[in-house]
Design a protein that fits this description.
Elements: H1 4-36, H2 38-59, H3 62-75, H4 82-115, H5 122-129, H6 132-147, H7 151-173, H8 181-210, H9 222-260, H10 264-283, H11 286-305, H12 310-337, H13 339-347, H14 350-359, H15 362-378, H16 382-402, H17 404-407, H18 409-435, H19 441-466, H20 474-496, H21 502-507
């Protein structure tokens, strides 16, 4: 198991990595929207939504299975079984990844021409099929490095992959005709596929070097394969159902928008704004939670396998949920207040600003659900998480059929709110049933809400009184204002006692 210092160190490392990746992703999507337009972003998002189903079929559950397998062996002193376990993971990934790749390549004409109703997507779908085996194998390696406390290697490869993808994509876009939607999408997915293969190759080299420190078991361990399959297959099956439903939802959204009265171009544009521009900003701060959720899965898994008491596990869960709520409330308040500035500064689009303001409160539910899911997976409740996610995806499809044709893009926003609330309630309810009620209403809800409102209000008053935007460019004012809000929010949390210093925690 990790020490507290190692846990925090790994969490911060993943946080830094994910923040860099999310920052690059947001500004990269902003650059793409400027170069190609929101309609191309809408079509590209549809291509990737169909492709995500194939990615799920090829790799779902692999990361979690490899992580749980290696962390259990590592945490219980069975280090001689780690390399054998990874070989079982690799065998599964190669067989399934290649099979799904061939199937996806074969059915691409049907998926693009019939399902998406746009033949311009066929070439892109076929190009993406090449990456599927590499993605599956990469997921196994990432699970291994997380499970044996070598997260920094996984993080480094993610950074390299993103750098390669962005560099290649921007270069490719400078060489193609941006007015040709098919060529732009093909350039985007081609660079995506190459970067996946490149990162898989680097992960393989790092694994070969790192795994030498573990002895190799001379005997075959059939229980390892059984354990890996027992974790991976149920998650993969459930993930495929959910991904299929999600893909159906993303196909139905433009259809529903057209039924509401929008033409094809406007439908793709509205869909691209919400899914391709607004959501990346809302999910950007989740990098911090994603990092600690990833570390928490292996940590809780190792603690549970080592026989740690329910009380100690409950204390760890309670602290994590409390921090997630404090963080989510602060992010929601700040993004809502700076919605106009963020939309204009990043995308140059006032429509983005309007949707950001409407959808900012959703952050609290999304972040709480995300950390709760991670903890449930660490407590061997991954099957329950997937059942809830399937129900969530099914309801999303139902709402896409019912709400969007009647209320347009705002029906889509409403469906996101309803489904996220139900998903969060179910995940949090199971966590409560497993470890007890993990929330302090005053410290985790009331005080953070009060502190976030005060922080935003103070910054708004200072900004309006000084008229600093006349002297300094708007983008710098936005960045400075966000930093001030974060610092003031933290100070108020400390003053009110919503968060305590490590010494006070220890003394209590």
């Amino acid at each position: 198991m990790r020490t507290t210092q190692q846990f925090i160190k790994d969490g911060l490392l993943l946080t830094a990595t994910m923040l860099i990746l999310r920052t690059a992703g947001v500004f990269f999507s902003a650059r793409l929207s400027i170069l190609a337009g929101s309609a191309v972003m809408g079509l590209y998002t549809q291509i990737m939504s169909v492709y995500s189903f194939a990615v799920t079929a090829a790799s779902a559950g692999v990361n979690l299975g490899a992580l749980r397998l290696t962390s259990e062996c590592y945490g219980s002193g069975r280090e001689d079984e780690i390399r054998t376990g990874v070989r079982q993971c690799m065998s599964y990934c190669l067989k399934v990844g290649i099979a799904i790749s061939l199937i996806f390549f074969t059915v691409s004409p049907f998926l693009g021409g019939v399902l998406l109703g746009d033949t311009r997507t066929i070439a892109s779908l076929r190009a993406l099929s090449v990456a599927l085996p590499f993605i599956a194998v990469s997921n196994a390696f990432h699970g291994y490095f997380n499970g044996v406390n070598r997260i920094y290697k996984s993080a480094a490869v993610n950074l390299i992959e993103q750098f390669v993808r962005i560099t290649m994509t921007l270069t490719a876009l400078s060489l193609v005709n941006t007015a040709d939607t098919e060529s732009v999408c093909l350039a985007l997915v081609g660079c995506n596929a190459f970067s996946e293969a490149f990162s898989c190759f680097i992960l393989l080299i790092l694994y070969i070097i790192d795994s030498r420190r573990f002895p190799t078991s001379v005997k075959v361990s059939p229980h390892l394969k059984k354990r890996f399959i027992g974790i991976t297959v149920p998650v993969a099956f459930s993930s495929m159902i959910r991904s299929g439903l999600t893909t159906a939802e993303h196909i139905l959204i433009p259809i529903g928008l057209r039924s509401f009265g929008a033409d094809n171009q406007s439908a793709l544009s509205q869909y691209g704004i919400v899914s391709g521009m607004v959501m990346p900003i809302l999910l950007y701060p989740m990098a911090l939670l994603s990092a600690f959720a990833s570390v928490t899965i292996s940590e809780l898994s190792a603690r549970a396998s080592a026989g740690e008491s329910r009380k100690k596990i409950s204390e760890t869960v309670s602290k994590g949920i409390g921090l997630a709520l404090i963080y989510g409330i602060g992010c929601a308040s700040i993004i809502r207040f700076f919605a106009e500035a963020l939309g204009v500064s990043i995308y140059g689009n006032n429509q983005v600003s309007g949707f950001l303001r409407i959808m900012a409160p959703l952050i609290i539910l999304m972040y709480l659900d995300h950390i709760a899911d991670g903890m449930l997976k660490g407590l061997d409740k991954q099957n329950y998480v997937m059942k809830v996610n399937i129900i969530d995806a099914a309801l999303s499809v139902v709402f896409a059929v019912i709400l969007i044709p009647r209320f347009g893009i705002y029906g889509f926003v409403a469906s996101i709110y309803i489904c996220e609330f139900l998903n969060c309630a179910c995940s949090f309810g199971m966590l409560m049933y497993t470890v007890g009620f993990p929330i302090n209403i005053i410290n985790n809800l009331a005080l953070p809400t009060f502190c976030s409102i005060i922080a935003v209000w103070v910054v708004s008053v200072i900004t309006s009184v000084t008229d600093i935007g006349i002297i300094i460019p708007e983008a710098y004012v936005t960045i400075g204002g966000i930093v001030c809000c974060v610092l003031l929010y933290y100070i108020l949390l400390r003053i009110t006692g919503a968060i305590k210093s490590p010494e006070r925690h220890k003394s209590q």
